[in-house]
Specification:
The protein is α+β, with helices and mostly antiparallel strands and 464 residues long. The chain contains 19 helices and 14 strands. It is 47% helix and 13% strand. Strands 1, 2, 4, 5 and 6 form a five-stranded mixed sheet that branches. A five-stranded mixed sheet has the order 7-8-3-9-12, with helices on both faces. Its EC number is 3.1.26.4.
């Protein structure tokens, strides 16, 4: 958890525990041991505030286009982190699950899909991909199914009861622009905004898909985003039906309207995929985990999306970027913090041509010139513009991102073996200290620590 997050109904921010240091660790360890022993958490933790957030797509007046985020007690989230750390030692999640897993990220899933598609294009063979969408995945998880999956995963009964207590008598109110609703009980689904929910959902998906994964090895999951790949249309259609049956018989639901099919290196007469007699929408491109993949292997659409995302981010901070009273150095920092990450997202998995790299850099220079109040008529060199704003070349930053991710993959260790679950074990201060330290958001390894010689060759020392 980062600082500055919205507080829950108890109005106690996580910064309180960060500031109190050892005193907080001692108090929380004592509190959590009492909760673990009694299997009952404080009643105040059961209350939450549900805030609907617009998804920025579709009709603004349709409730289905909003995502509900729960504001919960920060102290409860620290407790959830402690419980999650213990569950992760016991539960073993399949390799196909990339969502919220240690040493895995969206970059890994995007790269795996892109490299699979590329190999089939190089071999002049067809690859059929179905992108499965689950309707309201978190909200549809039946509670009884969750307890069953926890037990089947080897979680001790005591921790099953502890998690059950987190969901018992949970109450919430909906907060919107015109006020708040009356309080009501929540009896189905996982808590949106909970620190523990992503891992619980991964556990549920792992158990529900245990049988069908064996018949469809080229399947990737990122939480509720599922990609099913196969060499033949008939096989991918059969695998899709198996997944639908396995999920829907346990309370989940596959969206017929949002599930899409794409064929790589398609030959004539490849046909379409059907789901229960209904034709699945066939597309030539798909936005997977925020990155656009195309059936023809091109990345032109993704580059345009990155440019558009960069301009969207720049407009959000245009009040700062266009203020003449703010120094160029500060503007450069704001640009590197807000705009550039949106432009760089997922590009470490893309093979950029010189023309496409130039397209990105042209857009970046336009933003920097706007920020510094100069035009091309002023005949100021691009190097001076970058130096004034302390911004390196975008193409070099893409290559640095690739090196950083490559180093991350090289350092990745084998997943630790699952341990036996302990029925009763007190929460130690060391466990609480570890969680509190994680809340402080440690600094990631920089590219200069990975390969300083490469940085020298790029001649971007001192620029970010």
């Amino acid at each position: 958890m980062k600082s500055g997050k919205a507080v829950g109904p108890d109005d106690i921010p996580v910064e309180v525990w960060k500031c109190l240091g050892e005193a907080a660790v001692e108090f929380l360890a004592s509190l959590f041991n009492k909760v673990l022993e009694s299997e009952r958490m404080p009643e105040e933790w059961r209350r939450s505030v549900l805030v609907p957030i617009f998804k920025n797509k579709g009709d603004v007046q349709s409730c289905s286009n909003y995502r509900g985020i729960k504001l919960m007690s920060h102290t409860m989230k620290v407790w959830e982190r402690v419980v999650e750390a213990r569950l992760r030692k016991v539960v073993e999640i399949c390799e196909q699950q990339y969502g919220f897993m240690p040493r895995k990220s969206t970059t890994d899933a995007i790269f795996a899909l892109r490299i699979l598609m590329e190999k089939y294009r190089d071999g002049q063979r067809e690859l059929h991909c179905v992108f499965v969408d689950l309707e309201k995945a978190y909200d549809r998880v039946p509670r009884e199914e969750l307890w069953y999956c926890m037990r089947k995963s080897g979680v001790a009964e005591k921790y099953v009861r502890v998690v059950q207590d987190m969901y018992e008598r949970s109450r919430t109110v909906v907060r919107c622009a015109v006020g708040q609703t009356e309080e009501f009980n929540v009896e189905v689904g996982l808590h949106q905004g909970s620190a523990l929910s992503p891992f619980l959902f991964a556990m549920v998906m792992d158990q529900l898909s245990e049988e069908v994964r064996q018949d469809s090895p080229w399947t990737m999951m990122f939480a509720d985003d599922i990609v099913i790949c196969s060499e033949s249309r008939e096989q991918v259609e059969e695998n899709l039906e198996r997944w639908r049956f396995a999920l829907e018989r346990r309370g989940m639901k596959v969206s017929r309207s949002k599930t899409e099919y794409m064929c790589v290196n398609e030959r004539e007469g490849s046909g379409t995929v059907r789901l229960q007699g209904e034709e699945v929408k066939k597309v030539q491109e798909f936005k997977y985990l925020g990155s656009t993949v195309q059936s023809n292997g091109e990345c032109g659409k993704e580059v345009k999306k990155r440019v558009q995302a960069g301009w969207n981010g720049w407009r959000k901070v245009s009040g700062v970027q266009c203020d003449r009273k703010i120094s160029a150095r500060i503007k450069g920092k704001v640009y590197r913090t807000v705009v550039r990450p949106a432009m760089l997202y997922g590009l470490e998995t893309v093979s950029l041509r010189k023309r496409q790299e130039s397209e990105l850099e042209v857009a970046e220079l336009k933003m920097l010139r706007f920020s510094l109040g100069v035009t091309r008529l002023d005949r100021i060199r691009n190097e001076y513009i970058r130096g004034t704003a302390h911004v390196g070349r975008l193409g070099d930053k893409v290559r640095e991102a690739r090196l950083r991710w490559f180093g991350h993959v090289q350092r990745r260790e084998k997943e630790p073996e699952a341990e036996d679950s302990e029925e009763d074990s007190s929460i130690t201060q060391a466990e609480v200290t570890e969680v509190v330290q994680q809340l402080l958001s440690g600094k990631a390894l920089g590219v200069d620590e990975i390969h300083p010689e490469y940085l020298k060759s790029l001649d971007v020392v001192g620029l970010s």
